[in-house]
Design a protein that fits this description.
Blueprint (H helix, E strand, L loop, with lengths): L5 H21 L9 H16 L18 H12 L8 H6 L3 H12 L14 H10 L10 H4 L17 H13 L7 H9 L2 H13 L2
Helix pairs in contact: 2-5, 3-5, 6-10, 8-9, 8-10
Bound molecules: heme C (2 copies).
Length: 211
C-alpha cells in the first residue's frame, strides 16, 4: 500500500472525472447517469432468482436479459408499470423499482454476455430460417431480420432475440397475437397473428440458435 499505488489511483480518479459528463449527457431526461454496480446489486437481490445472476436465466419461460438493449429493457419495465404488458409476476416486480433502479438495472443487464440458446427441435430450423430471413409472402409475414438483424442482435427498441429461450419467444408471439402485449407493438401483433403455429414454433427455434 502507500505511495507505490498513488499513480494508478490518480489515473482511475481522473478517468472517472473525465468520463462523467459523457455519461450524464448520454441519458437525456434522467437526473443521474447509470450506476452499474448498484444495478448489479439490485439485480442480484430481486431478479436473480428468475433471470440468473448475470441475466442468463436457466428456466425456459423466464427470459434471458443478458446483452439485451437498454432502450428496450426500460420500455418493457415501464409497460409493466402502466399495465400495457400483462404479467402477474412482472407487474409487481416493476412497480417496486424507482426510475433510477430501472436505469441502473437495465445498464447492468445490457453489459452482460448472453449465453448461447438451446435448440430443442433442430428439424424445424430450416423452416425457421426461411421465415426469419424471407418472411412468408403467402400469409403476408414480413422477414424478421429488418428489425431484429440478420444475427438476431437487434438494437435500441428492437430486442435481441439471438440465443433467447425458444419457449419464451413462442409464448410472447402468442401474447402479441392475443393482445396481452399491445403498447407500440402494431407490427409484432400483425406478424404474430399471421404466422401459422408451425411457423411460430420454427422461427422461435431458429432465433434460439442464433449467437
Ligand atoms: C418470479 C420470477 C421473476 C422475478 C423475481 C423477476 N422476473 Fe422479470 N420476468 C419473469 C417472467 C416470467 C417474464 C416474462 C413475463 C411476460 O411474459 O411478460 C419476465 C420478463 C421480464 C422482462 C421483459 C424481458 C423481455 O425480453 O421482454 C424484464 C425487463 C424483466 N423481467 C426484468 C426483471 C427485473 C429487473 C426483475 C427484478 C427487479 C425481475 N424481472 C424479476 C420472471 C421474473
Ligand atoms: C418492423 C420491425 C419488426 C419486424 C419486421 C419484426 N419485429 Fe419482432 N419486435 C419488434 C419490436 C419493436 C419489438 C418490441 C415490441 C414491444 O415493446 O413489445 C419486437 C419484439 C419481438 C419479440 C419479443 C422479444 C422479447 O424479448 O420479448 C419477438 C419474439 C419477436 N419480436 C419476433 C419477431 C419475429 C419472429 C419476426 C419475423 C417473423 C419479427 N419479430 C419481425 C419489431 C419488429
Amino acid at each position: 500500500m502507500g505511495l507505490r499505488h498513488y499513480p494508478s489511483m490518480l489515473g482511475v480518479t481522473l478517468l472517472a472525472v473525465l468520463s462523467l459528463p459523457a455519461v450524464l449527457t448520454s441519458e437525456a431526461g434522467s437526473t443521474a447517469g447509470p450506476d452499474i454496480a448498484r444495478g448489479q446489486a439490485l439485480a442480484g437481490g430481486e431478479c436473480a432468482g428468475c433471470h440468473g445472476a448475470d441475466g442468463n436465466s436457466e428456466i425456459p419461460t423466464f427470459p434471458k436479459l443478458a446483452g439485451q438493449h437498454v432502450v428496450y429493457l426500460l420500455k418493457e419495465l415501464n409497460d409493466y408499470n402502466q399495465a400495457h404488458r400483462a404479467s402477474d409476476i412482472m407487474q409487481p416486480m416493476a412497480a417496486s423499482l424507482s426510475e433510477q433502479d430501472k436505469l441502473d438495472i437495465a445498464h447492468f443487464y445490457a453489459r452482460q454476455k448472453p449465453a448461447p440458446g438451446t435448440v430443442a427441435k433442430p428439424e424445424l430450423l430450416a423452416l425457421g430460417k426461411q421465415v426469419y430471413l424471407e418472411g412468408n409472402s403467402k400469409n403476408g409475414v414480413p422477414s424478421c431480420d429488418g428489425c431484429h438483424d440478420e444475427d438476431g442482435a437487434g438494437s435500441g427498441k428492437f430486442p435481441r432475440v439471438a440465443g433467447q429461450h425458444p419457449e419464451y419467444l413462442l409464448e410472447e408471439l402468442q401474447r402479441y397475437a392475443s393482445g396481452k402485449r399491445s403498447h407500440g407493438t402494431r407490427v409484432m401483433r400483425t406478424v404474430a397473428e399471421r404466422l401459422t403455429p408451425e411457423e411460430a414454433e420454427a422461427v422461435s427455434q431458429y432465433m434460439a440458435s442464433l449467437e
